Please model this.
Amino acid sequence: MAVPVGAAGSGGEAGSASGGSLRLQLLGPLRMWRGDVELDAGPPQQALLLALLLARAGRPISTSRLVELIWEDAPASAVNLIHKYIGTLRRLLEPTVPIRGTGSHLQRRGNGYLFVAGNAMLDLAVFRELVQDAETALTQHRPEAPDRYVEALGLWQGSAGDGLTHGPAAISIFAGLHDEFYAACVAAADLAESLGRPERVLPSLRLAASMAPLHELVHARLVSTLRAAGQQAQALDVFRTARTCLADELGIDPGPALRAAHQRVLVGGTAPAAGARPLVRPRAPWQAAAPSGRRPAGGLVGRAEELAVLRQAVRSALDGGRGFVIVDGEPGVGKTRLLEEIAAEAGQRGAFVVWGRCLEGAGTPSMWPWVKAIGTVLDALPAETRDRWQAGVIGGLLRRRDDDLVAPAMLDGGRFRLFEEVVAVFREASALWRTLLVIDDLQWADDASLHLFSHLADQLPEGTMIVGALRDRAPAPGTDLSRMLAAASRVSGHRRVHLGPLSPPEVAELVRGETGRLPGPGAARGIHARTAGNPFFVRELSRLPACQGPLTEDAVALTEVPSTVHDVVRDRMTGLGADTRDLLRIAALIGREVHLNLLARAAGLDVRACLDHLEPLEALGLMESALEDPCAYRFAHDLVRQSVAETIPRRRAAQLHLDVAEALERAEPGDDSVAERLAYHLWAAGPLADPARTVRAQVLAGRRAAAKSAFDAAERDLRMAARNPANSRSTTDHRA
Model:
């Protein structure tokens, strides 16, 4: 019989007025108890409704979405039925609640409902807490990590909501929970095998394998764990069964992880093999403490389901497979923070983490994320290998001088050769180290960068994982980005992760981490309502002076909460001095990340004075120093930069663009990034810039873009130069 969560008769938040604690099981057949008495969840559709709300505990589900999840062909009365089921379930869970009362657990949120679980009430919540405890203990090298994993895995009694009848729309809800279980099984197996205690995780691994007959990583871990436990015959049986299933169902052979596990069985021996690693692997020589260059202090709030998907992809790459994930969401929802978290975890496990960031603005050099990412990879390769690659087509992408601006080969199939060389470079890197490539802010990527992203994802080498992140609005995906996403969806193993808003409890936890004080339920609901659960908005709101006192519901209600982040930024700029405000505006025109020397030159300041003006900007959270480069500063969020730029009067912006252009020209003339950025700032300066000078810069920028196979950007720059009146005058003068 399944063991219910919590001890019988325990009190706390799970208690009810009827005299017993309420406990719910979702990790297996849906079951409920009050005290020692088991409750009936009711008819199938009512039980499915409860299971769906439990699976998304703490997060609201709209009524229209519930209708889609419960019925394939919804009746006209579907909404009324949901309201009826909710009322029945409320009385079942809390018998003393009045007929029209809301209760503590099944609550209305907008046009939907959410389930709020009490302490130790829901097995899914307890499972996630135990897994998080295990991962924290493992990172801190504390001995209780194996026990936490075993305790967490023991909560699973079968497939989530086993026995419930649901349509295809609900599959993804429960599949996400299963992915969390599989990921925890794999992690626990790694740890148990490395500690010489493989038998502790065998029951859970067998359950996971029975739930997912086509999940190669789970079966590979079961084979390895059986071998380590001295059960070679059973390990071979598992491999043969998995191989047959893959062939019959998918028409494919086992992948590298399953083949490697099988090979270790054939080699023999019961001691943990070299492939049975602890979760925390020694760092590779090139890695710093935070492989991403920046991992914010404190734990990540929420995002358990999303992290489970990313962790599974990382484990696949670490085992010699491939991983490909696209993360999307609205601006400020925490996409970059999620990428930093998974990058840090992958780095701790020995992966080579490579970042490429797309920058917003017409002045951004074409192929910029790949220039940075490929440069990082080449720098890590042995000198002889690096020189060989730099002498080829890929060297033209990285070259920073005027020589060979437009190689003829690039105009005749050169883009394909460049893309193939990039694939080959990552194949060579992944042969040395398992590699995680992160490309952030894909909504700002140029056409050539998006084509290369698709090309690499389609031919991803074994031992490599690629993660891309993009906004799904502001701006909405353009044609090129939409085509890339469509192509990505056809890549085998592709996963798409959408980041939604935080729930009210998660908002409260985020505010606590930001201010050191936990808001009450009323204040948390008020902050959530005014920010729509957007983490960036929540942080900005919590930094306002009105939120520095007691975080009560009245205090939140009286706070002038900005309707948009632009209002938040303007509010925080109010107390700045004129010189500091001008420096901030110049930085906003330069871009998300600003080099200190360039900023100082554009503002007409020395570096020390520039640092003095940056100090209050750091205190307000508008800008921050870049940990990976002590001479660089960056905006806390690109939304902040956009908001600041919009405060600049048009005529003043033209002069500031010219100041930036003057500062860029005083930089290294042959710098590849300067040409395209210079052309943009001279163009934005309009009539204040010498037209002939602008034309020369646009022509050079077009030639440099063409040299990198970014032909769309090259055409744009050259067309702008051709339309410039100075170009017509210079042509007329030449003919005269």
